[in-house]
Amino acid sequence: MSSPDLVLDKSDPGDDVAARFDYQHSYAAINAIRLITGEGDCTEVICENHEDFLLKNGSGKFIGTQIKTRKITLSPFRASEEQVTNALCKFCLLDQKFPGCFESFDFTTNHSFWENEQSPNNLPWLLASLRQRGGIKGLRENSPLRQYVEGIAVSTSLTPQNVAATLIKTTVRGHESEITHIGSSVQDALCECPGVKELPYATVAAIARALVQLAREASAKTLRGPITELFAPGTDLKQAVDDQLLAGKRICRADVLAVIDRFKGGSKPYEDIDVATLVTPSDAPSDLVIAFRKLAKGGVEAGRVTNIEDRVRSFEALFLEWSRKYGVDEAKKRYNNVLAAVQFEAAEAHAGAEKGGEPYGSAMFGALAERLMARARDDRDQLHGCRPEHLIGAAGVLTQQCKTWWSPQFDVAGDAP
To answer: Burial letters for 138-166: b for 16+ Cβ neighbours within 10 Å, e otherwise?
Structure first.
């Protein structure tokens, strides 16, 4: 007899909806991180106010942003789709409601835009053509560009000139990635902040989660301000509530710094960290989740952990090159020889580092890197010409295979593939 907790309900879209909102909140968090890095002259991120979020720059003008998500297995967005035209209509209406306030508009998706040919379905081409011309003046009535602009004008009851003016300053961006991959992008953006890359990966992962939560809370109807303001004599209660709701939607530089500083000064013991919850498949490459969890548990710095993926890919590329040159059997032989050599060096680095007490992952990484650089220099022929980055990649493979540890062993399974 079946039980509801053992049968997956594939008709329930709840988890899909949650993933879509998480993508939006994560994207807002990435833009909030720009308040620290200084990219784009952004001074505030304002969530769920007129648009999915607004970016305010130093001149006081705004970028209106809409986030649209779609399963990567589905077809790209076409200009004629209702979801697309509705977004553009909203941009145009907002531009007219607040004349002179918007510097630009941004339509972003995790997916992509259809660009197979120059046609009314090709949104990037339509927008680029409109910018190049500066409007639709002089176009024939049967021009796809003119018809597209006039179609939006009819839907919004605006003039074609007003619609064209808004679309000229509208950009589209497709990231062509799974919705769930946004988590690692938040961490990557965070590592651009001064000093963050040197923090333990577990700390950076925790900061990233907290910043996404900050964006989630800013997207909700949260009052932000002294409760006494709502009860002060002579106060316009409706206006006071509106002011506090608006304040709750704003993320400023101080908010982001407060989150980072809260975790930077933390001293939570590494043995208490639940890495299965902290490092999920959305935070790390699906084939390296276990490796990332083990490195996080060991207290290895974020810059080193995120760099592991590139090193693993480099080692994988070398295996493919060997396969083409020497055949698969010889490539496997070389691959396994390198893994065995690196496993020995990793064991030696582990033995030395653990004597210093936990967390010892950072010390072990430094020792292993030195040993592998020396090995690559002194035993080049035995290692088939591998460079140090290939050997670090091999260490990443061994970590994923649970043949190398950066802390005392623990249960790494969780929800890892």
So the answer is: ebeeeebbbebbbbbbeebebebebbbbb
Report pLDDT for 91: 97
Q: Which two tokens stand for residue 263?
A: 């975790």
- The phi and psi torsions of 49 (rounded to 5 degrees) equal -135, 105
> What would the DSSP string read from start to end of 36-96?
HH-GGGEEEEEEEESEEEEEEETTS-EEEEEEE---TTSPPB-TTSHHHHHHHHHHHHHHH
**pLDDT of 147 above 70:** yes
DSSP string, 226-270: -GGGGTSTT--HHHHHHHHHHHHHEEEHHHHHHHHHHHHT----G
Summarize pLDDT for 307-324 with one digit per residue, the tens: 999 999 999 999 999 999
Longest dimension (CA), the chain: 85
Q: Which helix H or strand E contains 171, and what residues bound it?
A: strand 170-174
In single-letter form, the type of residue at position 306 comes to T
pLDDT at position 1 is: 55
Three-state secondary structure call for residue 352:
helix
- Are 50 and 60 in contact by the 8 Å Cβ rule? The answer is no
| 350-355 average pLDDT score | 96
Higher-pLDDT residue of 242, 226 = 242
Closest CA to 68 of 144, 156, 173: 173
Q: The tokens 């009314």 sit on which residue? A: 120
Q: Which residues, other chains included, contact 322 with Cβ-Cβ below 8 Å and sequence gap of 6+? A: 330, 331, 334, 335, 384
DSSP 417: -
Could you tell me the residue ranges of all domains in the chain? 14-181, 277-400
